[in-house]
Amino acid sequence: MRTPPTSDLDLFADEVLLDPLPFHAELRESGPVVHLPNSDAYALTRYDVIRDALADWESFSSTSIAFNPTADQALTGTSLASDPPVHTPLRAALTENLSPRALRGLKGGIEAKADGLVAALVAQGSFEAVDALARVFPLEVVADLIGFTGRVRDSMLRWGQAAMQVLGPMNRRTAESFPVAGELYAWCSEVTADDLAEGSVGRGIFDAEARGDIPAGTAGHIIHQYLGAGVDTTVAAIGNIVALFAAHPDQLREVRAEPSLIPAAFNEVLRYWPPVNVWGRITTRDVEIEGVVVPAGARIAVLFGAGNRDPRHYDDPDAFLVGRNPVDHLSFGYGPHGCAGQGLARLEAHAVIRALSRRVGRLVVGPEVRVPANITRSIDRLPVLEVIPA
Ligand code: HEM
User: Fold this and answer.
1) 60-77 pLDDT per residue, tens
2) What architecture (CATH level 2) is domain 14-389?
3) CB of 365 closer than 6 A to ligand 1?
4) Which atom of ligand 1 is nearest to 333's Cα?
């Protein structure tokens, strides 16, 4: 049995994080799994191999999803970082409040909020898309959902970013983010039902704990996972929606002409630019992948974007086409840990796409600014210089 090909690429180098897909494409062409000694990891690069590994939790364990041991340790016992059977009840508690039934009541409010926000920005004529839309909107939605009030609302963005950043290797970004992620952890350990707005989902989680429906002491952890997993990712996705429709006005036109394409358009945004750039697993045994062996105890780097652009799976993968409807993209993961919050993410994103396609003919944007980040890949600033109304 052969060993996998090796590359000296560092997945977490600034220039790679800023524009990872060309680097990941090179890895994908050298093999379905590539050993990266400089990242202390084996990268999974092709669609089928990524999907199979995410389904095979017995060989690819979630007990290490970060790229440094301190973060892995801090996550021990959470849904994200556990395998079945430990994972099963934790996930059930997480998903209960994010099920289609639980979210049904939120749809109207989320759509009205997105439409009001986009209408005001269009009337303004020019705006900063990330600050004024991509950050504001999901923060408001998640804050209202959980029932955050006052000071905590202002910390959510920093906390959410840090919770993702600390999953990287022990570089400067990770070290600087640990104290901020610690603030979130401390707050979630102390928060009580009284701190959360009446009628909110967050308050409901505490009520469930009080009734004994979920184990004592878990309500704070659930809220921690909503914030850690649900803020930075959705901010990235909404920034990507604006940037991709600005760059592809013909695709925005297609959605305006045929609003039933909205879900397909969001699938394509996620396939094209996955908000989660890289994510970890650890092998529990020697695993054979297409004729090569990855040893037991190896750190695995799952490259969702490399899989999403794999020409073995998608025709013309580098084209952005809203009609493609890639329902099987990898950006929400797959298998037992597939994103628990995707229903909420879709509600938010569909509302933004609906509002943009209804109100905007074309967006004239300046250059997008990106800042390297360990796990989430998002646009930091995107000036909209002119809005040509629909
Ligand atoms: C576009 C936005 C989002 C993206 C791209 C995204 C991506 C992901 C991915 C890739 C995973 C799988 C992790 C793994 O395999 O280990 C995941 C899991 C998860 N996501 Fe999301 N996510 C998004 C939004 C949200 C939101 C809004 C929430 C909640 C409010 C959320 C909550 C979670 C939770 C709790 C898990 C862990 C599930 C488990 O361990 O079983 N996500 N997400």
Assistant:
1) 999 999 999 999 999 998
2) Orthogonal Bundle (1.10)
3) no
4) 10
